[in-house]
Structures are given as C-alpha cells and as structure tokens.
Amino acid sequence: MSASSVRxxxxxxxxxxxxxxxxxxxxxxxxxxxxxxxxxNLVLDCExxxxxxxxxxxxxxxxxxxxQVLRLSSSVFRVMLDVKSGFKEGKFLADRFCNPSSSxxxxxxxxxxxxxxxxxxxxAIHLHSKWVPDSLTxxxxxxxxxxxxxxxxxxxxxxxxxxxxPKSFNGILNMDKWLFMAxxxxxxxxxxxxxxxxxxxxxxxxxxxxRVEGLITEGQNGATFTLDTRIPESITEEIQRVQxxxxxxxxxxxxxxxxxxxxxxxxKCTHQSLVxxxxxxxxxxxxxxxxxxxxxxxxxxxxTSDLYLLSVxxxxxxxxxxxxxxxxxxxxxxxxCCSTPTFKQxxxxxxxxxxxxxxxxxxxSCHSRYKAPTEQDHSKSCFPTGVFKQELGCIVxxxxxxxxxxxxxxxxxxxxxxxxxxxxxxxxxxxxxx
Length: 434
Fold this sequence. Notes:
Distance between the termini: 42 Å
Low-confidence stretches: 10-35, 215-222, 296-304, 341-360
Strand order of the largest sheet: 1-3-2-4
Number of helices: 15
Order of helices and strands: HEEEHHHEHHHHHEEEHHHHHH
Mean pLDDT: 75
Number of strands: 7
Largest sheet: 4 strands, mixed
Shape: elongated
C-alpha cells in the first residue's frame, strides 16, 4: 500500500509523487533488490516490527522502527498499519502479532523519499533526542517539510520545528518554498506573512501561470521563477485571485482619474487653466505609455488588461515613480517687448530649439532678459500627486495574507488548527474534570 493512496484515504487529496527511478515493489515482509551493494542499517527500536526501506544511488537504507510509534505520529501510517484497515500491511502485522517470534518485521519500501530527512524525523519520534540536530539548513528543512506534508508528521515533531524554523526568511531560499514549508508545518502566522509577500510579488505569464518577479535570493535580482509545484493548487489560485483583484483596483483608480479630466466640463485647475488640466491628463497618458499600454481610440478611459500581468509591487512602482513633474509654471514671461522670445547665438551657446536657459533667454528685439513667470507653481496646487499615491497605497495596505485554516485538507487537520489557535492558558493545570 503506497503512502499516496493512504493519504488519499485519510484526507481525500492524493499526493503527486516525484518522478524518480523507483525500485520494484515487494510484498509485505519480502526482500527487494538494492540498486547498490552498500547498506545502512539504523535500529531505532530493537524490537521494532517494521522496517522502512529506502533505495538511493548511494545505497540502501533500512530503519527498524515501531509500528505503534508510527501510528501515533502519522495519520498516514495510522491507516496503513491499522489491523482493521484492510490494507495488506495491517493484515501482515495482525498475523505477526499472533506469532512474533517466527515472523520477520514488516518491510515497507519508500523509494520516493529522502532517507536522511526521514531518519531525522524517525529519531525525533522515537525519542533519540541526542541524534536530532539542533538546527537545519533551509534546504534540509525543505526536505523535512516534504516528508511532513506527505505523511502528516508535523504535530509529532512540533517541538523541533520551533528550533529549526528561522526568524527571518530573506536571502536564504525563494519565498514560495518557505510558503510551502509554512503550510506543511501548520505555521499559520508565517503562512499569512509569506502569502502576502507573494501576492505583492507575483505576476502572471502569458500562459496564465503565476511567476515571481525577481528572486528573493541575494544577487539574483531581475530574474523570474514559477511557484513551487508542491504548493496546493487551491493556494496558488487564491494568491492569483487576490493579485488580480488588487491590480484591477489600481486600474480602476487610474481610470477614475482619467475620467475626471476627460468627461468633466469643469476645469480642475485651481487657477482655471485648461493647459494645466491637459498636462495632468497627459501625465496619466504618459504613464500608461511607459507601461507599454495603448489607450483604444475613441475610448480614452479604457485600459487594456495587460496591467494584470504585472505584480502589485511593479505596478505600484511604475504608477508612482516620476508620473507627475515636481515643478511646473504656466503663464507668460515678463520683460522684453515681444510676446515670444527667439533664441539666437548668445556667447558660446547656439540654441536650435526653444528651451528654458535662464542665462541667455532674451528678447530678440530689445535684448532684455526675460524673467520667470510670476504665476504660482501648479505642481503643488493642481497636480494630484499626493492623493493619487495615497489611493494606490491604500489598495496595497488592504491586502492581507491568506488564512491557513481555509486550506487544511482534512477534518483532523482542521481540528488541530483550531486547537492550536486556542491553547489553554495554564499548560500545567490543563486537565478538565467533569
């Protein structure tokens, strides 16, 4: 009986096995062919009635363990090894219980799993604490998470997880791998934190798949990668839904501002300047051009859906960086006798186009220096820079991480999650006499 089918029976959600070169399956208690001559034997219970068998390129690993410990620690093994479950492993143990001296231990092949990660978990649940490391590398912890997610060992090793899980997740592994670990280990607070970060960082590729813009690992900025395939599809779908909703809200915000200047007959400028309103509208349009978006002719308030392909962080940056000028003066210059100055050669500067050079702008007739207009700076009074950025910021700040409880896969996991949320205040006097 494979762990995948047992997991399906327990939770209703099958495990997708990794593509590995597996050895031929053997019957309960029967021998299997090794792919190498070297064998590593680890006895965790000298009277153990189960041998977990692993085959790797380096050799074969055999762990002699207790079926009772496995059943107490894992819901998957609890079903697989139950004498009443109807599985061949449970039937073999039932027959062995009647005649333990003449029956060999049950041999369970696990060709898809990492024996090093499994060995750490088996030492922990068999109380071989001196052989359990106090810390693990992120890569090793990821392998532990794969085993916990597949066999439901999380609660049994929760004490060690508190030591192994780091307080910071930056610059070590990609954020999506940490999200999978948070889900596998049932750490709802970390899960919410990391899922929010991915909602802000994820975009969508042309095939509709989520991707993260820029690796979290230091020194690899600018690259993109797809999310870890071990993350349940329901989680990635929810991340994409929230990301798309946030981008839509930002698009609606831009549309609303454009509509105020296109569809309104009233001048928005505090100085009643149509030129000022045109500049504001032009700034929004230029921002869209910078995003490689085209406003359809005849429908200037419509923005194409390409914006939804960007991450929330990227879209926010592009819509708030240099979209409006910091300083703009609208009005006629003073000084000189002509309404528009012409630029000729003054000193060593040869002006070929109209510019704003304060050292050589002079009247072409009387050569008097032109002075700056006396009108107020429109960028401070008319341009919606602060309000627009504040509206986009509110959209981003309203994004919350995902609720771990929505994605538990079985009633037992749901109850464990609920119990973890409300632990007793006094863990010593925790007995309730009725």
